[in-house]
Design brief:
The chain has about 400 residues and is an alpha/beta fold. The protein has twelve helices and 17 strands.
Length: about 400
């Protein structure tokens, strides 16, 4: 009888851990605005229909990293403005050092110079590579401070719930939060932020005027800037007099990663730096990168590059998983406009990552969505690789293959 009681108590405890919801994170004000966030991945958008559907706020991606401007940024900005939508802008940060962070913040501000923005400027820093938490926070703070200094506008941090809880520190949490968490009515408390000003609750929304999926958001009235004058003009980071950038190789760098960051090719880096072995570069080594290099690649642009013929039923996420790369890498490398639309028989270029598979040990409060975001994969891929029957049911201590 005693053993049965102990066993019963054990199962009750497990049930409570799994089923009792965490405390919710509250909005920063009671008034809520319907919103979306978009990039070139949404293709051509009819903002008149978007406005008529009830959307009030649209966040638009301006660019990524040091040099990549979203192909639809200017068009999306102009059309959204014409149709009376409140506009926010965000930048996908790929920095790996404080110097990178400041440079990327300057690039972001250069893209939005002389524009009238209604909402706080968003830092989308979610791809951390091999960075440890102290480095992540050092980079994030350097970026945010430089962004506010150059733009004279307030900044906001975009983050999923997992990163908000386990990656960012209390210093970063002094900035307001635009949080992403799907499949719940309210985002979970992360222990750092006391409220949210933006809440991205779906990545598979449907809105009139947009073909395919779009992120759905809620925003509070605190998302709006106190100063809506034009963003001061800031020049794009310049090359030196020889039309080049000098880049110092960091630990964990590869030529393919550097090429993607600066929107160039491995072959170009090999040629102008006289590199004998493209698989062998050293921490601290200085590489020359030409600013005006033609970035269109051919199938033989890299000794590491392979080509893949798309089969019926393939998705970019499946292909990325198979070759241990990322969807964003495939999109950038192949100039794919819509990552949800690839065709059987189509040939795409891939630079495989030959590192070993990664595993993740589930912590209390984790969700598959948060883990998928952390490793730049999808919930469906993690479910498939691990034979998970119920995606809403994972356990602390469980070991999951993530790529």
């Amino acid at each position: 009888m005693k053993k049965r009681i102990i066993l019963l108590i054990f199962f009750i405890i497990i049930f409570l851990i799994i089923t009792v919801p965490a405390y919710a994170l509250s909005p920063s004000s009671s008034k809520i605005y319907k919103g979306i966030d978009v990039s070139e991945w949404q293709g051509d958008i009819d903002f008149k229909k978007v406005k008529e559907s009830g959307i009030e706020v649209v966040y638009i991606r301006a660019g990524q990293g040091f040099s990549y401007e979203d192909a639809k940024f200017e068009t999306n900005y102009e059309k959204a403005k014409e149709n009376g939508l409140k506009i926010g802008v965000y930048h996908y940060v790929t920095a790996r050092s404080v110097e990178d962070a400041k440079l990327q913040a300057k690039f972001f501000v250069s893209l939005i110079s002389n524009k009238k923005i209604d909402c706080k400027l968003a830092m989308d820093f979610e791809s951390f590579g091999n960075l440890i938490n102290s480095q992540i926070n050092e980079i994030a703070l350097a970026y945010l401070k430089e962004l506010e200094e150059l733009s004279k506008k307030e900044a906001i941090v975009y983050s999923n719930t997992y990163d908000a809880k386990y990656k960012f520190n209390s210093e970063v949490a002094k900035y307001p939060l635009w949080v992403a968490q799907y499949g719940v009515n309210e985002p979970q408390d992360n222990g750092k932020w006391k409220s949210w000003e933006g809440y991205q609750y779906s990545s598979t929304g449907r809105v009139n005027g947009i073909s395919g999926n779009v992120d759905l958001d809620k925003f509070t009235e605190n998302i709006f800037l106190s100063n809506v004058e034009e963003v001061p003009e800031v020049e794009k980071p310049k090359c030196d007099k020889e039309d080049r950038i000098l880049y110092k190789v960091k630990r964990g760098d590869t030529l393919s990663k550097i090429a993607l960051e600066f929107n160039t090719t491995v072959e170009h880096l090999v040629q102008i730096n006289n590199i004998k072995n493209p698989n062998l570069i050293y921490t601290g080594e200085i590489l020359t990168i030409s600013c005006n290099h033609n970035n269109n690649t051919n199938d033989n642009d890299s000794q590491n590059m392979i080509t893949y013929k798309v089969k019926r039923g393939d998705t970019l996420s499946q292909i990325a998983l198979e070759y241990n790369t990322t969807v964003s890498s495939l999109v950038n490398l192949n100039n794919i406009k819509n990552p949800n639309l690839i065709y059987a028989g189509e040939t795409i270029k891939i630079i495989p990552n030959n590192s070993s598979s990664n595993y993740y040990t589930v912590k209390r409060g984790n969700t598959l969505w948060g883990i998928a975001r952390m490793y730049n994969t999808s919930v469906a891929n993690i479910v498939r690789m691990n034979g998970i029957r119920n995606p809403n049911l994972i356990y602390p201590g469980q070991k999951l293959k993530v790529n």
